[in-house]
Each structure stands twice: as structure tokens, then as C-alpha cells.
Amino acid sequence: NNNMELVCVKDFERQAFAKLEKNTLDYYKSGAGEQFTLEQNRAAFRRLRLRPRILRNVSQLDISCRILDEQLKWPMGIAPSAMQKMAHPDGEIGNARAAGKAGAIYILSTLSNTSLEDVAAAAPNTCKWFQLYIYKERHLTEQLVRRVERAGFKALVLTVDAPVFGNRRADVRNKFSLPDHLNLANFEGELANVTTMGGSGIYEYVTNQFDPSITWQDISWLKQLTSLPIVLKGVLTAEDAVLAREFGVDGIIVSNHGARQLDSVPASIEALPEVAKAVGNDMLVMFDGGIMEGNDIFKAIALGAKVVFLGRPALYALAHNGQQGVEEMLEILRKDFETTMALMGCPSFEDITPAMVVHEKTFMK
Ligand code: FNR
Description:
Layout: H1 9-19, H2 22-29, H3 36-46, E1 48-50, E2 65-67, E3 70-72, E4 76-78, H4 91-101, E5 105-108, H5 116-122, E6 127-132, H6 138-151, E7 156-159, H7 169-174, H8 201-209, H9 217-225, E8 230-235, H10 238-246, E9 251-254, H11 268-279, E10 284-288, H12 294-302, E11 307-310, H13 312-343, E12 357-359
Helix pairs in contact: 1-13, 4-13, 10-11, 12-13
Bound molecules: ligand FNR.
């Protein structure tokens, strides 16, 4: 029933599943391989229990925060996801504007259906970061970085969990390609097209264009190229978090790319504690993967994240009702998070302690 009131993220997902055509829905929802990690990204949240504190005056909540010199209404952002106009004509601009209205960050993917200049012009008041993939043709990436700087994006988010593209079986079966009226709007000619050569068109594009030889030295290359803050997206181990600190990046996002790259890695929320323990006192640690509830946001913050990002929920809300759908979804989620904060006895982030989130095994004999 399309007129039913939507009251949680899952409701938006249901709407999108009913609405999107197969090529698009499969691309959005799928994980890599046998989708074991995809399942775990949600299941691992459910294995965590909350230990609330009582009688702590929660009449005034403060969930605002400052991240890389930007003031946010709450610790929320929209993760970079490719090709958002497949969800709805509002596409990247709809998502970026909705994020701005919600006082959240918007990260634009390199592989967007709207050019970065158009997104910047249409959402001037949104805190915008740009997600970067490094092309084999380095000058392409250099030009992209210059445009990103000029357009007023506030940080570069380098995705480091995709030296090659994950194996997403549904896209291979569907011979995924972009609908004819859409392209990769940051590029021209061949680089703007995602068409099948027999398998998944996006897999083929990435295999042909992205540089699988990138190493930590390229972080130094990027740092001398730009003075924008650099965030690494896709860190899953303490070892790599320590290296990220050594190479002087400004932040990391603990992420398994929505379980779309290497299957059988830990759920994001399982990887977060070791990363936060290793570097959380010295650098900005952020999180994405499986967030659907206010409780999930709380768990991620308690385990060391300063900001969390949404991937699929933003696409599904966009599919349901464009920019307005995303605004509604974010409003629902923010209120839900406020309820969690209050019921946990935490008027501010300083009141959250690690002891408030424990693994279910604590309660089992
Ligand atoms: C992504 N993600 C992604 N990440 C990235 O760095 N660049 C990209 O272009 C994309 N594209 C993309 C497309 C789609 C359809 C999805 C679902 C995801 C990964 C994304 O930024 C994020 O890490 C996950 O989506 C977070 O998990 P949830 O919130 O989807 O569970």
C-alpha cells in the first residue's frame, strides 16, 4: 500500500523494492560474493545490547557536533553511492539538498549522474565532501581534484577498498548498464558511459579505468596535490588505521563498502572497536555499513565513531519520493536517534560510555 505512513527506514526500503526495476534494484541492494558480509552488517548490530542509565535529566539533548571544521546538527552523513539518478530524477541534487536541510554531510561519488559543479551550485549550503577514485590516467584524477576544490567541496574521501571491483553476481547476470538517458556526468566521451560488454558494465568500467596499483605512496601524492583534508574510506583493521595515521590523513571511515567489495570481511560494526582503540584518540574515526535505526547510530558512536553515514537508505528514500523522501527519512532517523539518546540517559555525547554497548554473549551462559 503506497499511502501507508512511513515510520522507519525499513518502510522506505520496502517502497523502493516495490518500485525500482530489476537492473537498478539489484545494483543498489546487492553485496559481493555470496553476500555473507551483507547479512552480517545488519546481524552484527542485533548482537549488541544496550545498557541504559536512568534518572539523568534528558530534558535537553545536544546531538550537534563539529567535524572537520563544519557544524552539523547531528553526527550524520550520506555516503557516496554511484549513479543516484537511477533511483529518481532528483538524483544527487535531491540527496545533497536533503542532507543540507537535515544538517548532515553529503559525500558525492566520482561516479555520479550529476556533475560535481551542478551539485555544488544546487546545494550551496550543504556541507559537501567528494569521494575520489584514482584513474589509471592520473591527469584525470588531478583535473577532478582541481574542479572539486574550485566547486567548494570541503574534503576528499579516497575510497581504498576498491583497487579492483567486487564481484556482484546479480550485476553480471543482469549485464548491468546505465539507462540510455543517464551518464557519468563528471566525464566526457567513453569515460561517461557505462554499457555492458557482456558482463556487468560497471565492473567492466572500473576494471578498465581505475588504477589497481595504488599504494600508501599515493596518499603522499594526493597530499602534495591538494590542501583539502583527506579521508580514507574502507579501513577495516587496526594495522591500516595506524598506517593512515602515519601517512597523515585527516580521517578514516570504517567501512566494508556496504559489503560490496570483499565478502567474508567482518561487519563494519565488528571492525569499528579495534580501529577506534588503535587511533580513535588521535584521528577522526567515522563509520558506515548497515545503519537503519537510531540505536545503530548510538552503538557506532559508543564504539568509537564520531559520524555515521547512510548508503542504501538514502537511495531507497530517494526512490520512494525524491528529495522529499530523503528529507522525511532523515527526519525520522534523527528523531529515533534522539529517543535512543534520551532512553539511554545520555543528554550529550560525553555521557556515552563503552560499557553501554555490550555483545549479546555477555548475557548468555
Ligand atoms: C556504494 N558505495 C560506494 N562507495 C564509494 O566509495 N564510491 C561509490 O561510488 C559507491 N557506490 C555505491 C553504490 C551503491 C548502490 C551502494 C549501495 C554503495 C558504498 C557506500 O559509500 C557505503 O560504504 C555503503 O553503502 C554503506 O552501507 P549501507 O548504509 O548501504 O549499509
